[in-house]
Every structure is written in structure tokens, then in C-alpha cells.
């Protein structure tokens, strides 16, 4: 995380996310797959399985990670297999959703895992300051499902919505997202936002046009129309 100064001097805490170009490896449609989505590849790898080699046949590079993004009915646009998505599809001010895997904390107690206050440190508690205490009544003779107790903490999929793109660095392929995002450093993030995906327009070669001599101009005169002196009435004969 770092901070960015806006033009008015306001300091905004941001997370710098390195975004390598993603290549579209597959386009899924309702007719063939039952839903609309695009599959994108991320990262580079030297060796891949034969199955993935066949799946990526025809593409220039082998990718390390494959992920899918479900799309609305009209979001496919002119996307096709082999297109590359970069940070240029985002603009400052866009509202995005970030999905990541939270940091793994291992086995933790109720104080750290659920925010319990713990027991008083004096008056006979001895070494039970951070214990959970009673976990249920005697009559059921069992622990109810969903009881907040100690256990594995973290390493779960976390989705954060309503984050804002503060700055887009297209030269270094870095997105500056307002606030914090889930996961540790070098973690994998899925960033998506509303709207149609617009790829950068390709540079078209302008054909050379040979000069052509313009035809000679003809002289024209403008004269005023003669006034109408007589007005005749025409009646329809029955």
C-alpha cells in the first residue's frame, strides 16, 4: 500500500496492483456452454500439461493461471480469442470489485478469530484470560452448529465491492485502487467492473493518395429572377 496526492492536495490511501496483460483463451456462450463468460490467462510458464497445451493451441504464449469472468448479455462485444486485456480497459473513477484470498492465520482462538474480549486477568482466572468460556446449555447435551469457537482462520475467498480506481499507469501496468484489497503480497486478484470491455483501437495504415489535378473552374453568373406582373386564377371545371 501507498498513498496518492490528488490535485486538490487530498491524500488517498491506495494499493498498487501490478496488472500484466491477460490473454483471452476461450469465449463461452449460452448455446455451447450454457452461460456467457470469457476465460483469461495470466502469467508465464515454461512447461504445461498436454491437456492445457491443446486448450491453448493457436495462442502465442503459454499461461500459468486460468480464470473466468461471467458477462452480461451484451458485454461480449467484439471480443475474440487471442485478444489481450491490459490496464487500459480501466479509467480513473471506475468502481470495481476485487476478489482475492485472505491471509492464512492458522489455528486461532476466539479472541483473535472472533474478537472476544476475554476474561478478567485477576480474581482467580489464572491462565484462562483468552478462553471461550461456556459454549451452551446442559439440556441439549450438544454444541449448536455455528457456535463461534477456535479454529482455522483466514485463507478464504474474500470479495470487496465499491472500490475506486484512483490512477492508471499504462507504462508500468499498475492500477492504484483506493483502500485495501484482500490477500498478501504477490497474491492473485480478480478485478472486474461494470460496463463493456473496450479494447484499444488498432493503428490503421493510411493509404497514400496521389495528387490529382483539379478541373478548371467555369465562370457562372447569378441573375435575379424577373418579377411576375400578372396573376391568373384557375378554376376547376366540374
Question: How would you summarize the topology of this molecule?
Answer:
Blueprint (H helix, E strand, L loop, with lengths): L1 E4 L5 E8 L3 E7 L1 H4 L3 E6 L7 H6 L9 E6 L13 E2 L9 E7 L2 E5 L1 H5 L36 E4 L2 E13 L4 E5 L11 E3 L46
Antiparallel strand pairs: 1-2, 2-11, 3-4, 3-6, 4-5, 7-10, 7-12, 8-9, 10-11
Description of the molecule:
The chain has three helices and twelve strands; from the N terminus they run βββαβαββββαββββ. The protein is mainly beta and 238 residues long. It has a domain at 2-45 and 55-120 and 146-192: Double Stranded RNA Binding Domain (2-Layer Sandwich). The strands form three sheets. It has a six-stranded antiparallel beta sheet, with no helix packed on it. A hairpin with a 4-residue loop joins strand 10 and strand 11. The longest helix is centred in the N-terminal third of the chain and has 6 residues, at 50-55. The relative contact order is 0.20.
Task: Report a brief summary of the structure.
Helices cover 6% and strands 29% of the residues.
Shape: extended
Number of helices: 3
CATH fold assignment of the domain at 2-45 and 55-120 and 146-192: Double Stranded RNA Binding Domain
Biggest sheet architecture: 6 strands, antiparallel
CATH architecture of the domain at 2-45 and 55-120 and 146-192: 2-Layer Sandwich
What is the name of the CATH class of the domain at 2-45 and 55-120 and 146-192?
A: Alpha Beta
Run of helices and strands: EEEHEHEEEEHEEEE
Cα Rg: 34 Å
**Helical proportion, percent range:** under 10%
Average residue-wise pLDDT:
81
Total number of strands: 12
Alpha carbon gap, first and last residue: 94 Å
Side-by-side strand order of the widest sheet: 1-2-11-10-7-12
Instruction: Quote the beta fraction.
Output: 25-35%
Structural class: mainly beta
